[in-house]
């Protein structure tokens, strides 16, 4: 907040002229003018006192004419030092808030999770399930191929033509495949019923 003026060159020059030209300047006013001439700033209180002295002594110089090139002196704001106890307490509060925020963000995170679809135990169950399906499909294919091979080789004693042998092998493999599928479906229904 401004509480003084920074005096300019015109102010100093007019005070110097006033002191040199006026021989009848009273001693109190002369001392005040000389003290003001040496300063670079002039407080509002001193400016009022100087104005009052000039009026009392009958000088036609107005204060606003003296202060024409002067500016308001605005002291630089100095930030007060922070209390170390307050700083330590604020740091503690910031750390606590950051920790609470971290806990809030990670409260539903399970470190044993592999991905968003479940835990590692769920993954193991899925692998076992896939393994069982692969073994079942492989067993089905081997059974159908073996039935075809047996029917093809066994039909050579009944049929002499290759076409008849292939047709009989395909029929036998289809019957065995359908029977295998029936058993597979019944087994899967039983497993699904247990779940």
From TrEMBL:
Coiled coil: none annotated. GO terms for biological process: vacuolar proton-transporting V-type ATPase complex assembly. PANTHER family: TRANSMEMBRANE PROTEIN 199 (PTHR31394). It comes from the Eukaryota. It is found in: Endoplasmic reticulum membrane. The chain crosses the membrane at residues 132-154, 166-185. Its main location: endoplasmic reticulum. InterPro entries: ATPase_Vma12 (IPR021013). This is Transmembrane protein 199. It holds the Pfam family Vma12. Keywords: Endoplasmic reticulum, Membrane, Transmembrane, Transmembrane helix. It is a multi-pass membrane protein.
